[in-house]
Amino acid sequence: MNKKVIWAIVALVAAIGIFLGIYLLTRPQTQQGSKQITVIVVHKDGTEKTFTYRTDEEYLDKVLVSEGLMEGHEDKYGMVIDKVDGVTADWNTDKAYWSLYVGEEYATTGVSQTPVYDGSTYKLVYETFTE
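and the corresponding structure tokens:
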């Protein structure tokens, strides 16, 4: 192999290492042990239902699925929410989807990457996309 190829491989390995390190340092940290959380579901008509759960799970999708509040499917980015509290949001029919909020802020992570913290409130809102 010539020197250019070797240097390209070294640079690629270094770049992968740097990106992995950044990911590990900046990913949301989880909280182990028993936690109590509140989940508010806002339906299409604006009505709200509040659920309180005690859990040892570290990520929100695990809690919501095990409690039967949410159904979804996995894709390459994690869990996609299909149904909440028995109600399906169908993008293909009316551009509807279930959005996730942590407190009052729109979540910056998906439901399978959102850590569960004791005392936290999460909101699942039925929304439709409008241009």
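(Above: one complete record from the training split.) The beta strands are 35-42, 48-55, 70-75, 78-84, 87-88, 96-102, 105-106, 121-128.
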